[in-house]
Every structure is written in structure tokens, then in C-alpha cells.
């Protein structure tokens, strides 16, 4: 895969392990004949360490040899999150600390979750781009208070706080971007 075609969430091989790209910075050349540099901040899926990669746009990065399997949440305890493979009913366990960011958006009925399997072990969890969650706690909006739109914090059904427009009320369902944690709209 060419470096210029890689997007956040893409998984490539670096060294001997797969890494998932979290952020991309593009540095344009300042002189004629210069090449555009792509700086990737990635996380090693096996060791969970951050990795920085700098590549030219035409550099070829090998795709990681791993599998994505559709899973559902079975249950979570203090140390582990237990997932069930939707196809063959195999169970996978991941440490809570390794996927704490993803667990902010996971509910029992969430569809579209993928377990990342490398060497027959579950090394990560990939969520859909957006999820629908219910607002369980927020301040009431006051009508006519401002000519411009304002935001307020709202606690969602999973316990995560998101900034939402002032007109939303408790009990409404909203869509949230799982990559940035931003409010996308009403569900």
C-alpha cells in the first residue's frame, strides 16, 4: 500500500508486528523537486507502544497479515472484556486497560465491532465509525439565550461525556464519532 493512500485506522506491518495508524501529518516540500513527507503516529497492536513513521508518498508499506472478525460483547469484568465471535462462537478476551478508549462507546447491542486477530490471538478491537447512544444527563436548554449556537456537556448511556448543542434534552439518542468523540447529529 502506498504511504499517500494510507488513512487513519489503516493497519500496516512495521518491523514484525502490525501497527494501526492513529494520526497523519503531511509535510509539503518547500523547494522545487522536494518530496512530500507523510508522518504517521501509529500504535503497535501487539505491544501497544506508540510508533512514529516518516515516509515519502511513493513509499510502499506492506499490509499486515491479520484477520478481522465480527464480534459482540459478552460481558466485562474488572480486568478483561470478553467478546464472542459471531461466526464460529469462539471467545476472545482483551485487557480492559488496552481498549479503554474503545469501551467508552461499546454497548451490548452494538453491531459492527471487529476483533483484530493476529497469530490466532485477539490483539485489538475496531469500532464502527459512529455509534448511537442515549443522553442520560444534561443541563436543560434555555430558549432564546443566544443568537449563535452553543454547546453543553452531556453524559451518555456508557458514561462518556460529549459536547452537544444546547437544544438537546435528556432521553434523546444521538450519533457520536468513535474516532474523535464528537457529536454528529440526532439519531
UniProtKB/TrEMBL annotation:
InterPro entries named among the record's database cross-references: Elong-fact-P_C, NA-bd_OB-fold, Rib_uL2_dom2, Transl_elong_fac_P/YeiP, Transl_elong_KOW-like, Transl_elong_P/YeiP_cen, Transl_elong_P/YeiP_CS, Translation_prot_SH3-like_sf
All copies of domain Translation elongation factor P/YeiP central, residue ranges: 68-123
GO MF terms, alphabetically ordered: translation elongation factor activity
Record-stated family: Belongs to the elongation factor P family.
Residue span, Elongation factor P C-terminal domain: 131-186
UniProt GO BP: peptide biosynthetic process
Organism, scientific name: Lacipirellula limnantheis
Entry keywords, A to Z: Elongation factor, Protein biosynthesis
Gene for this chain: yeiP
The keyword Protein biosynthesis is annotated on this UniProt entry: yes
GO cellular component, one term: cytosol
The protein's name in its UniProt record: Elongation factor P-like protein
